[in-house]
Structure formats: structure tokens, C-alpha cells
Here is the input.
Amino acid sequence: MAKLIGGLGTSHVPSIAAALDKGLRDSDEWKPFFDGYSPAQDWVAAQKPDIAVVIFNDHGNAFFLDRVPTLALGVAENYDPIDEGWGPRPVPSFVGAADFAWHLADQMVSSHFDPLICRELQVDHGMQVPMELVFGRPAAWPVKVVPILVNTIQYPIPTPQRMWDLGRVLRAAIQSWPTDEKVIVLGTGGLSHQLQGARAGYINPAEDRKWIADIGPNPQRYRDMTREDYVEVFGSEGAELIMWLVMRGCMDMAVNTLHRHYFAPASMTGAGMVLLENA
Amino acid sequence: MTTVLLIPGLVSDHFVWDAARMALSPLPVAIADVSTQVSIPDMARDLLARHPGRLMIAGHSMGGRVAMEMARMAPGRIAGMALLNTGTHPRREGEEAKRQAMIDHAHAQGMAALAAVWLPGMMNAEAVPDPSLMADLTAMVCRMTPEIHERQLRALLARPDAAATLAYKGPMLLIVGRQDQWSPVAQHQDIARLCPQARLEIVEDAGHFAPVEQPAAVAALLANWAHAVVAADAGLDRIPDTPLFDRPRSNNGYALNKMAMGLSSPEGRAAFVADEPAYLDRFALTPDQRAAVLARDWAEMVRLGGNLFYILKISAVDPTAIRAIGAAQAGLSLDTFLDTRLGKVTNG
Here is the structure.
């Protein structure tokens, strides 16, 4: 059976991508941010996962408002970087773990999660940035991917409780996948930020740090919060953090927090990561 | 926070709402004072001024007419409207003479005498009136004066034709006593035809004073409905200065966002750069949206339904830093924005 090696939560701020593209990784502004990811990168490299399941939201790139899937699942053979307005970024195409993705589709629908199933899909910074933060910028990605896209833009967005339950289904799908592949799950988005309205520029480093510290050992508070609570505490786009609950929900209740990192502001966002393994 | 404003009817006060008030807890509740104003529109204007913010309004009898007038004047502030034992029709043939007789009676004989002739016709005629309820209602009427009574009756005689202007689209609850002879069930069915979203509840064994004749039943109907309406209403816009992208915003901003989405292709970007007005002509922007785009007024674009993830693509063509867009929406200089919102770097 496939093995879940760990869960990683991380920001997917587009400015991180822009900094990499401009060669600013080791600049005074960005080096402290990127260096914080190095221990987790080393751990993942040593574990040699075969598949990364990446939970993220499309930011008005692959999907317009003419059709908004609350949940979408990629089953494609390949995912190219999408043109977000500046032309496609020079990152390698992602190879899809299509067989596992179809298995996941079966498991999800059997468990009453009914995603849009995407055979052709281009992916934006929501998936690119986490992959770069975990695997650097290789000539070819060392893992196959399964994208799970969550609508966090147009209301109603799904509830935090539903995200956790999706994590349980994902866990069952990994455990019932009859290969010896190793799987890592990336829950992405956040941390606190707000791009819209007169409250734009809102960040909440104190709550971000609490999230980073508690999402492993004490996730219950975050399972209980409403969508509105997320917006209030983490900002309108900070509500993306509900996608970390998919990752957390697929882990055991008892986990070890192997690495964690926080940096603010990355552009207009509280940014950071946490790496969990089952205890 | 939404306040539940309970509006009593003719020569009535908080007594009519005592049971409802208990059931509505812990929602913030206010009882309207309609004893001083000279017309229904004045009552509505005055209540809107005295009770700021978002309101869920419930009006009994004359109070229902005040509620409908408030919803006409300020529909955007009304989270929901409950109308109890009321109607929409303007003054009827012969009504003035009957009302004048009551005005004269109150002036000549006092409020207790008015209560004695007025109240019995308001109650469920099929039951023997409960003496303690009649005593409480008489006490309520006696808390008013002949002058208040006259002022309210003249306001009622000059009332607007509410049916002609009833265009409220929000959540509505209609409650009427089965035995209400003064404002019968049919009048509420008429309102439900004008406002198809309204839910009509008929309370058994109750006349025109249903809220006190069947206090538990009416309070439960009102409170269950109000709790659901206030919870739904509080959802999205309760966080200040945070315009979540809900159905109205998505609808209002659709063409604007679609225009911006067009900039995710090289062809769209080239067309925008070559002739921006001609590119904008391809989309059904409102004049306000068009002006906001041309002026790069980010706050206005968002106010008009633009979502940052789409309109940000304009900044790919006409480079603008995301932080500058944030500062513009916050109404701050970039330095002040960076300093006060984003603060010092924190790491580790």
C-alpha cells in the first residue's frame, strides 16, 4: 500500500515566484524567508516521495467566473504553468500521477465528495510556488503531482469542516492505493493577508505564529472556526488557510512538527510553513 | 451587528413585544417609539435616524405600515421585515368619520373609556377575553394620551398606499391571527402576492392582537425566523472594510472581471495596450466601471464588483505594485500603508 510520509503546509504568495524569477533568492529582503525552508527541503529530499498531492486555489487563471468548481481534481498526464498576465513562468511542466488521481476520484465520489474532474488543466502560482519551495527549481520535478483545487474566491466557499473531512478521504485513498509509492500532501495558501477593500494590507503575525505552532498538536480550534472567523482573524484571502485543513485532516491526530518557519511580510502576506509527520 | 427593531401599533408600546423580546435573546432588540411623529413617513424617517446600522424590523398593525415605509426608504439597511396583523390599503370610504368619533371619544372620556370601546373588536371574537390580558392591554392604552391617539390616527388617515410601493426583496415574514377581523388573513395573502419571497404564518385562536393573544406561538415564529435571517445576514459583511466576493459583487463585477480576464492572453494584452478604449468597448462595462479602469482607481473597481485576482491583470499591462494597489484601497500613502499595515519584518 502507498505510504503517507508527511504533510506540509505552506504559503503560495506570487511575490515568492517573482523573487525567484528575478534572482532575488539570496537578496537581503528574501534570503531569510527562503532559508527558513531549507531544513524541510532537506527532509523531503531524503524521504524521496513519489507523489505530491497539492491542495490550492486557482486565482482566476484556469477558471473564470463563468464556471466556478467548488472542488476540482486534476487527472491529467501533464500540467503546464499558466499565463497569469505576465506570460507563463519558466518552471518545468508538472507530470501528473494520473493513475493515483483516478483512484482518488473514485474514493472521493464514493465518499460523497464530488469534484470537477480535469483532464486538461494549467496551473498557476498556487501550485507552482509550493512546489518550488519544497523542491527548489530542478530541471524536472522529482515527484508526480495530483492537484486538488478549492474555490476560495467566490462565496460560498467550502467550510473548514468540509476541508478536514476531505483530508480524511484523501488519507483513506492513499492507504488503499495498491503500490509502494510514497506520498506527501501539501496544503497551501495564507497565512494572514487581505488584498481587497479598505482593510487591504491586513496581516496578523500573532495569530499566524499561533497557527504555525498549533496546527500540528492542537488543530481543534481551527476545525471549529467558521469561514467568517477565518476572514476576521486571517483576512479575506487569509481564509485560504482552510486548505491546510485538508493536509492536517489526512494526518493522524498525533503528529510531530518536524520543521516550522514564519516570515512577515512577504509582499502583503504573512508567510510560512510547517512540516508534519505522523507520530 | 443587526438590531431587531420592534415597532408597536396604535396606542401600543413594549407590552405587545414582551414575549417576542424574550424569545429573540440574545439578539440586540430595540422597541420603537412611534408616539411623537405626525405621519407614517415621519415615523419611518425618525426610526431610521434613531436606530443606526443594519436593522431587522417587525411591525404590528400600524407598526407594519411604518416598517413597509422604512423598507421603501432604506431597503439596503433592512436585513428582514416581519409584518404582523397589518395591511397595505390606503384610507377607505367612510374611515375618516369613524376615526374622528374615536378621537373625540378619547378626548371627552379619557383613555380607559377609549380602551373599553376599542379593544373588544381587536380580540378573537370566538373566545371569551382573558380578563388579565384585557387589564394589561387597558393599562397599555392608558400609558398613552388622547393627543398621541389623535396624532397616530391622523397619521393613519393620511397613510400612503403601501401596496403601490412595496418592492422589498429581502426576507419577509407575515403573521396574522386566524380571527383577525380588523386586518384579516386575506390582506396578508395580498402582501404575499406582492412579495413572493414572504412566508405567511396564520396563528390559530388569535385576533388583531395576536402577539399578546398567543404570545408563545407568535414569539417562537418571529424569533426562529429572526435568528436565521440575522445569522445569514451577519455572514458576509460583518467584517468592516472587507468586501467578500459574494453573489451581488460577482454579478455586478462580471463584465469588469471578464475584461480583466481577457488580459491573460498575449492578444488581449496587445489590444489593451494598442487602444484601451476600444478594448474596453468589447465588454459590457457600466460607465462607472469604465471610468474606474481608465483612471486605474482600484478602490472604485473593487467597489463596483472587481475582484483583485482578475483586475490585478491590468497591473501586468500597466505595471503597478500590489502594495500600491493595497495602499490605494486603504486610502493611505504607500509609506504610511507599509508602515501601519505591514509593519516591521518578523522572521523565524
